[in-house]
Amino acid sequence: MNFDSLLPNLGEWLRGTGPESDVVLSTRVRLARNLAHYPFTNRATHPQKGETAGRAKDALAHAGLPYPLAYHDVTGLSPLDRQFLVERQLISRELAAGSPPLDGPRGVALDEKESVSVMVNEEDHLRLQVLRSGFALDEAWQDIDRLDDALEARLTYAFHPQFGYLTACPTNVGTGMRASVMLHLPALGLTKQIDKVFRALQKINLAVRGLHGEGSRAFGDLYQISNQVTLGKSEPKVLGEIREVIQTILTYERQARALLVKERKQAEQDRVARAIGTLGSATMITAEETMELLSAVRLGIHLHLIDDLPATAVNQLFIHTQAAHLQKLMGQPLDGEERNAARAKYLRSKLRELGSH
Amino acid sequence: MKCQACDNPATVHVTDIVNKQRRELHLCEACARQHDLIPDQAVPQFNLKALLGLLVAGHPAAAPGADPAALKCPACGLKYAEFRAEGRLGCPAEYDAFRHALEPLLERIHRSLAHAGKAPRAAGRRAEVDGLRERLAAAVAAERYEEAAGLRDRIRQKEAPG
């Protein structure tokens, strides 16, 4: 399979068009499901994983979904393609790596819009995911609920009358649902209020993570906020709680942005101009520095401090400067230093093209 | 307050309550890091596996009289001690086989012992079962076990195929 055709697309989560997209990049809902009568993936033999993957593939092929899902065997993908799918938020780092006990038969089914992904033989036999641009919890839930129903009609899920959907890790048992919202919070960072927000979130059992989920660092002021509790609360209740909290954070971030414009406009303008300057003239640049600078530019656009760069262009630069995307664009494998040089070259030419340099 | 492992001031505090017994852990940042409670990251977050390990280790009182570490899954052979070390269960049967040891853990993670929400059902019967499930959650939370058992039986009945 060749994923190069996806390269020019921004994918659902970077489309930047959904509700509240000045702050909310994307909404994701995932459901963890396991097949009854099989060990969980970490305890399954390769032949057993072959069986669970076979059943999942069959159900996916005959689910009668309004969008076709194409199944990709991850073991048959090059490391570059796997990394590419991780960068596009379509598979987890764990499914890509396949380190024991998650080695052996595994795969992912994807729709054309890159909005739906079903990982097979990740920590749980099935990890259903729906991604939506902007703040769209209800829409994402409706989509995934329908997908789950369609698969359930063809599979026997491990379900317990008291504990609900059974999962390999007790932190997911019950609904198996994790709803997360990806936020861009540069102003709360600049005004040093972000830690206060996180402390408040932890008190109400919501998790804060970086771009690539558990254990990843928060680069470029991007944060994922998600529920921790999966047992004892219905899906709509959990979604309602997250919605309320995100609304509050949106208000805080916008207040902080307004304050920046009111009290530090000159300094912000300078910061944004310097960020564009560095992006447009550096000859070596890391992915991390790129993300930090693009974060400043993105804020500058939404504060109307610059008007000659569209927000979607920033989103495109953001994804295209990630390691695997960059190597695909350049058409060759590049090691660390070469990559930093190629990234800088790409940024220089893109910014020239966009006419701001 | 001093760190329980050394004499530095304690800055990391973990509290949990099991069987109405309060248990506290006070450590300095260095010792908490040593126990892998805090990884080196920009975003503050707990290492769940390490936390589970520490909390579970402190509570061998699972099924009365039984040592949960010696429990073994009849379906896949996973030992409870292996689950404690890895943080992952081996198969769906363990939610029953390890139930007494798992329930305090689930209570700590989710503050609940019963699912409320979607169930694999034809859409028509789902709402009814959801209602029963919410009542079950409330009954378990209020320690009304007889009522909970009755509700559980009714849910089982509804979930029975056909």
3D architecture notes:
The complex is a heterodimer of chains A (357) and B (162). Chain A is an alpha+beta fold and 357 residues long. Chain A has a domain at 265-355. Chain A has helices spanning 11-14, 46-61, 79-87, 93-97, 137-152, 186-190, 194-203, 235-281, 287-302, 311-320, 323-330, 336-353, and strands spanning 24-33, 70-73, 107-110, 116-120, 126-133, 159-160, 164-165, 177-184, 206-209, 222-227. Chain B has 162 residues and is mainly α. Chain B has helices at 29-34, 48-57, 80-86, 94-97, 99-110, 123-141, 145-159; strands at 12-18, 21-27. A two-stranded antiparallel sheet of chain B has the order 1-2. Residues 40-44 and 57-63 of chain B have low confidence and may be disordered. At the A-B interface, helix 5, strand 6, strand 7 and strand 9 of A face helix 5, helix 6 and helix 7 of B.
Write the layout of secondary structure elements.
The complex is a heterodimer of chains A (357) and B (162).
Chain A: H1 11-14, E1 24-33, H2 46-61, E2 70-73, H3 79-87, H4 93-97, E3 107-110, E4 116-120, E5 126-133, H5 137-152, E6 159-160, E7 164-165, E8 177-184, H6 186-190, H7 194-203, E9 206-209, E10 222-227, H8 235-281, H9 287-302, H10 311-320, H11 323-330, H12 336-353
Antiparallel strand pairs in A: 1-5, 1-8, 2-3, 3-4, 4-5, 6-7, 8-10, 9-10
Helix pairs in contact in A: 3-11, 8-9, 8-12, 9-10, 11-12
Chain B: E1 12-18, E2 21-27, H1 29-34, H2 48-57, H3 80-86, H4 94-97, H5 99-110, H6 123-141, H7 145-159
Number of domains of chain B: 3
In helices, the fraction of residues of chain A equals: 40-55%
**End-to-end span of chain A in angstroms?**
38 Å
Strand order in space, largest sheet of chain A: 2-3-4-5-1-8-10-9
Number of strands of chain B: 2
**Tell me about the biggest sheet of chain A?**
8 strands, antiparallel
**Overall average residue pLDDT of chain B:** 76
